[in-house]
Each structure stands twice: as C-alpha cells, then as structure tokens.
Design goal:
The structure holds 2 protein chains of 2 kinds.
Chain A lengths: L24 H19 L30 E4 L6 E3 L8 E11 L5 E8 L5 E9 L4 E6 L1 E3 L4 E7 L4 E11 L8 E11 L46 H19 L40 E7 L3 E2 L30 E8 L9 E8 L16 E7 L2 E2 L3 E2 L1 E2 L5 E6 L10 E9 L11 E9 L2
Antiparallel strand pairs in A: 1-10, 2-10, 3-9, 3-12, 4-8, 4-10, 5-6, 5-9, 7-8, 11-21, 13-20, 14-19, 14-21, 15-16, 15-17, 15-20, 18-19
Helix pairs in contact in A: 1-2
Chain B lengths: L23 H19 L36 E5 L17 E3 L5 E9 L12 E10 L5 E9 L4 E9 L5 E11 L3 E11 L3 E9 L7
Antiparallel strand pairs in B: 1-9, 2-9, 3-8, 4-7, 4-9, 5-6, 5-8
The chains are: A mainly beta, B mainly beta.
C-alpha cells in the first residue's frame, strides 16, 4: 500500500463542505494527504511506505518551521551587597563591565531586551556591548531608564546560531568627587516581546470524543491510510471517517498537550504522573516517546565576574581591594590541582544529551606578563561536572585578539528533568610555575546545539 | 480561489460511524481541524492568501505551538532564575564572596528577584505559573539551624513559607516543593526572605518550573 502526502496544504474548500454539496472520496484523500504531511513535519518521522520528511519543526525563524520559542538568555538577580562599587575607583579606572557572560543565541531569535537593575548612588552611563565567538565587538548603545519600573533597558540584536559574550558596561562620571557606592542588583536578557493574555481551560464536559491511546512506550499512534482506500468506485466507508477523525484527535493531543475540545482530560497520559521524566507529547525530547526534531535551546547563562573594558582586571591579584570592586572580581587562585570555581543548581529539559554544550569565559591582564599566553607551562583547562559525571578537560583559548579566553566544552553531562548542581572546575596544567592571578572568571553558559 | 474551512469542532464516534447521516459538518470538521493542526505545527498560515485560523500563541507572535504548556504544547522543565556560588576554594580568598548571602538569627537574608518568565496560557495550575525554590546552604555556627524561606512579592505581602533544617557545615541542596510563588508571563518581581535560628550561608538558589502539563 502506498501512503502519500501533499507537498503543501491543500485544505478543504468551503464548497466541499457546504450543505447539500456532494462529498467525494477525493476530498477525504486530500484531507488524509494533508494530515500525513502535517504529521511528518511535526514528528520528523514518517509512517511506512512514505519518504522521509523534507521539512522539520526547528523553530529557527525560517518559514513554516514552527513558532519561535521565546526562551530568556539571562535571568540573574544579584544580592544587593554582592556587587558594590565604591566611589573611589581611580585605582582601576572608571569604565568596566559590571556583568559579562557568554550566552547562546538560538537561530531566528535575535532581538533581546536587556533589563539592568542598578541603584543610582553614583552618576554613570550604562550601555551594552557584545563580542561574537571570534572576538568581533559590537556596540549596542546606551540603556534608558524606565522610571515607572525602575529599570535600565535597551534592545539589542545578536546573530543567532552561536554564542556571544554580552557585557553590561558602566562608565562612571566624576568618580573622585563622590564617596557613594553603586550597586548592581541583577541582569535580565530575554526576547523583546510583549506577552499577550491567553486564557484557557480544559473542557469541563466529557463528550466521548475518541482519541486512540498509544501503548506503553509507544510513540504517537500513526495510522497508515493507503491510497487504495480512496478509489472512486466505492462510497466513503464509515471506518475511514472514524479513523481519520481519531487520527486528527491523536495528533491534536500529542501536539498541544491539551485534551481535544469536548473531552475533559487528555487520553494520552504522561508516563509518571505530574512530574514525568518522559512525556507522551511533542517536546523535542527524543526520549523514546517522541521523535520530534531537535531545537537550539539557550538553557542558562550567568555573569559572575567583572573586568575593565579591555578585558584586564578590575581588582589586583592577591590583594583583595579596600576600595572598588569586591575581591571576587579578582583573578582567582589556581594550582595544578582541580579547584571548583563556581556552582549552581539547575534543571535542564529532556533534550538529547549529545547536544549539550558549555562555554566558560575568563579574562586576563596582559600587563601582568604572566597571563594565559598558552605557552607550555602556562596552560589551563576547564571542565563541567554535574550530577551525572564530568565533561572532558577542555583547554581555554583566546577569543580573537581580545583579552578574553574561552573554554568551549562539547560534552558536559546532562541530567535531564532533575535538579542538578553543575559546577566549573579549573586547573593549571603541570610543567610550569604556579601563579596566582592569571585568570578572572567572567561567566558561563549551558545550551543545546544540535 | 475559494476560501477553505477552518472548523475546530471535533466529531464523536457516533457522528462518523457507517450508518450515521452524512452531514456536511462531518467533512467540514475533518478538513477544518487538519488545517488548524498544520498552522499550529508550522506557526503560520499554510494557505496562500489566507490568514491563519489557529489562535495566536501567548508570545503574541504567530499561532504555533511553542512548548509553553497546554494548549501550546507540553512545557519543558527549565530554570526560571538562578544565582550560583561556592563554598570551597583553595586559598580562602574567594570564600565568602561568591554566594547568595548569609542569614543569621539577627539578620535575615532578603533578596529581590526580578526575572522574565516564559509567556504561557493562563489556567489553573498551568506550567510556568508557579515558581518553586531550590537552595544550596550550609550552617556556619551552632547546631542544626531551623530555617524558613518566605515567599513574597515586591508589591508587598508574604504569601507562603516553608521550613527546612540545615544540619551540616557542608553544602547541601534543599528542594522546597511545598511552597511557591504565583508568577505571570513576562516580567516578575518577587521577594525571598530567609530567616533562621542559627547562622547559615546560602550559596546557590534556583527558581524553576516543575511540570510539563499541569501542577
């Protein structure tokens, strides 16, 4: 039997569905071929007898590839006391990134709203600058102050499909004449969209609208409608109408996660109650119950340290400051033994572990003469450890000709759907003298890049 | 070119069995729902010259399923906001700097949390409508610390709280699932207050959404 699908949606003309209009098998065939096409796009799979799907739901902004996902990049509140800048900052300069971190930009989602929470203890100008993964710098302009919401904001545009270093730059004015402090209280970078109010509720009635139930461990139930079922010489069998109807209902619940209107509850229950490790609905998980295409997903990004705008240190090594920045902005100690530089509890979606990535970015100070020149005896590497294991140790490399250095880690271990503490470990490779203060930790991100 | 049907009404088994009357709304339902399904998948109209008949998603852009919870797909378990930190380091120079902050018997920890929540359809117990808290903490002095996390809002009011016991000087994780913040699509401003009878240090915090379909 041959299963065919339409190359584009045929749709059903209003004249085919008019009262007293004859219903031809051709109309049912077109519906089935439309349904086959939609099913193949949604699942990335195909039922027996048909060719592999040619278009997938990648959510990357290209035409007919699914809605953009609207995932925030950075959602980092910062304790008020953690990042204070005293007025007497002349020891290190008055222009610096108070927060800077790598973040992965998914393809298609390129315009973001930056919200920065800063008190106004010192006169300053705030702006956003970014660097792409090759070190090319982009100036995004100054932030404006929203007096109603008490937040500094601006919109920025970033190229998708790669990670970028996003920095919140502060230029202090009249620093020597002011004894006040400035506090940085948080950074939020999210798609520049205005959500609309969509109210919804499952249907209260239970009208017995049929939805076929997939068996345990099964994927979406795919019925194969063969072309031979649509010969002109036969009437439209009730079996055919029943099963096309059920197929639509099954795909509806699988895709939307909601019961078909008329039903009080979904028929395809998740595998483990309200907190399932796997799900019997479309979710891009590739977890055995779903075969939908993979998506680019920015799961997490956190600014940790700060640096001057040329990438050099804001705080001298081995001398926690009495003025200026907190000592955590200083270059951190490192030895040949692995040390934990940072950790955070997170929960990650159930995507393909093979697509999980991390980027950790450091700064260094060329004026020190002992910076991470990457010569033998002065090399460092980094790994990410989580509840499920450790990534490979990955060398840091210079980002273009900047004073920023990145470790792009290809194999952090994913623990999906469970809260897991992920941490950064750093070590200095053996062979050279140990130094204190070659690297400052700026930020890191985790993402999925299929 | 004639317009195409976009009916969302489902059919019961009784309407499409062999001896059921062949009403026009049977074929209209089959064709209409197939069209809307296609629009939900690809996020736009699939018929040249016709606007999409599927409803706009909570992002306000397009009509596609965006996996923000029913009826726009099952949701993903994701972090909503996060603060990292460490206790350990090799020299002691970093210790006490990278953290959320201390809470003592005389000085509670108060943290204003601003974050952007994924747009989602509003319904009772919807995914992304509740923010749960996970903390990493250790005690710094004294015996076991009875500690309380209180959930408030910048606009005022403490609505919920949950106790937990910090018994070790080593970092431990506390998944506080009996209380939560009610949060909305887009920007949120919430307040976390940590009170304790002995001194504790909070080294990491995570706000997260827990479910894929409904709480």
């Amino acid at each position: 039997m041959t299963r065919t699908r339409n190359g584009s949606l045929s749709g059903l003309s209003v004249f085919d569905a008019d009262i007293d209009a004859p219903t031809f098998t051709k109309a049912i065939l077109e519906i089935v071929q439309d349904l086959n096409m939609i099913e193949d796009i949604a699942t990335g799979a195909h039922s027996p007898g048909s060719a592999p799907v040619v278009q997938t739901m990648t959510h990357d902004g290209t035409a007919l590839s699914g809605s953009l996902l609207g995932i925030p990049l950075i959602n980092c509140p910062t304790p008020h006391s953690r990042r204070a800048v005293d007025g007497d900052v002349t020891t290190f300069g008055s222009s610096f990134y108070v927060a800077i971190t790598p973040a992965f930009i998914p393809a298609g989602e390129t315009i973001y709203r930056v919200n920065a929470y800063l008190d106004q203890g010192l006169p300053f100008t705030a702006s956003v600058e970014s660097y792409d993964s090759s070190g090319t710098k982009t100036l995004h302009g100054e932030l404006s102050f929203d007096e109603t919401d008490g937040v500094y904001f601006c919109d920025i545009t970033l190229a998708g499909g790669d990670w970028h270093l996003i920095g919140l730059r502060l230029d202090l004015d009249d620093v020597t004449s002011n004894s006040s402090s400035l506090h940085f209280d948080g950074l939020v970078v999210a798609p520049s969209i205005v959500p609309i109010d969509v109210s919804w509720a499952p249907d209260a009635q239970d009208a017995g609208v049929p939805v076929p139930t997939a068996g345990a461990g099964a994927q979406l139930m795919i019925e194969t409608f063969a072309d031979a079922m649509f010969t002109d010489n036969y009437g439209i069998a009730g079996w055919l109408v029943v099963n096309v109807n059920r197929q639509i209902n099954a795909l509806w619940e699988w895709l939307t996660g909601a019961p078909v209107s008329g039903n009080a509850a979904v028929t395809n229950a998740d595998s483990s109650g309200t907190d399932p490790v796997t799900t019997r609905f479309a979710d891009h998980a590739r977890d055995g119950l779903s075969t939908v295409p993979k998506v680019e997903y920015p799961a997490f990004a956190e600014p940790i340290g700060a640096c001057l705008v040329d990438g050099s240190f804001v705080v001298e090594d081995a001398s926690p400051p009495v003025t200026g920045m907190p000592s955590r902005y200083a270059p951190f100690p490192r030895t040949t033994a692995a040390s934990i530089a940072h950790r955070v509890p997170l929960v990650m979606p159930d995507f393909d572990p093979a697509d999980f990535r991390a980027v950790v970015v450091f700064c260094s100070d060329p004026g020190k003469g002992v910076g991470p020149t990457l010569a033998a005896g002065n090399q460092h590497d980094v790994r990410i450890t989580g509840g499920g294991g450790s990534s490979s140790w990955t060398a840091i490399t210079q980002i273009g000709s900047t004073n920023f250095y990145a470790a792009v880690i290809a194999d952090p271990v994913l623990t999906a759907d469970q809260i897991t503490t992920y941490q950064i470990e750093v070590r200095k490779l053996a062979g050279g003298a140990e130094h204190f203060g070659d690297l400052g930790l700026l930020g890191w991100c985790l993402y999925f890049d299929p | 070119m004639a317009a195409h049907v976009a009916d969302q009404r489902p059919l019961s088994d009784a309407e499409c069995r062999s001896l059921a009357p062949a009403y026009a709304n049977v074929i209209k339902s089959l064709g209409g729902r197939t069209r809307i399904l296609g629009e939900k998948v690809v996020g736009a109209s699939m018929l040249t010259g016709e606007v999409a008949a599927a409803p706009t998603n909570p992002q306000g852009r397009g009509c596609g399923v965006d996996f923000s919870g029913p009826p726009f797909g099952s949701a993903w378990r994701t972090p909503m906001w996060w603060i990292g930190g460490i206790k350990e380091d090799v020299s002691g120079d970093w210790e006490g700097q990278s953290r959320v902050g201390p809470a003592t018997s005389t000085a509670p920890l108060t943290l204003a949390i601003r974050f952007w929540n994924r747009p989602h359809a509003r319904f009772d117990k919807a995914p992304h409508s509740r923010c749960y808290l996970n903390l990493r903490a250790y005690k710094t002095t004294g015996t076991s610390a009875t500690t309380t996390a209180s959930y408030g809002y910048s606009a005022g009011g403490i609505l919920r709280s949950q106790d937990f016991s910090v018994t070790s000087t080593s970092e431990a994780t506390f998944d506080l699932i009996d209380a939560y913040w009610d949060v909305v699509p887009g920007r949120n401003e919430i307040l976390l207050t940590v009170t304790t009878d002995h001194d504790v240090m909070i080294t990491g915090a995570l706000g997260h959404q827990r479910v894929k379909r409904s709480h």
